[in-house]
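Risk mitigation, structural track. In case the binding assays with heme C fail to produce interpretable data, a predicted complex structure has been prepared as a fallback.
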Amino acid sequence: MVEVQVPETLSGQAQIGQRGFEGLCAQCHGENAAGRQGIGPPLVHRIYEPSHHADAAFLLAAQNGVRAHHWNFGNMPPVEGVTRADVMAITAYVRELQRANGID
Ligand code: HEC
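Fallback model:
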């Protein structure tokens, strides 16, 4: 849904997060968190910049799900079997993607 510039290098934490993201989140949030038409929003988006959605929001989203409020994709269900460490790595990955796209 959005053009995402992929950073040339990712930190070790973000590389771990990328694998987690691809396994658990990309089915809805799209490859490189660019969103999927009709399914889920891009996380590389101003709405999700750190000052509006802090890292804790990622943990809450994964553990409890999200009631639709920004988009019309419907609710996000809780992600089964995801750990706090998984989400922290995934968040580091999304933040590095965001920064590479001027979202900070
Ligand atoms: C079944 C589809 C689906 C999966 C899988 C999914 N999401 Fe979501 N997610 C959504 C949708 C849809 C929304 C948008 C809700 C709205 O309208 O605000 C969302 C919103 C979010 C938000 C914003 C929360 C807020 O407070 O507004 C975050 C952060 C997020 N997702 C992270 C993740 C992460 C991390 C994963 C993987 C661990 C993941 N999502 C997996 C569908 C999904």
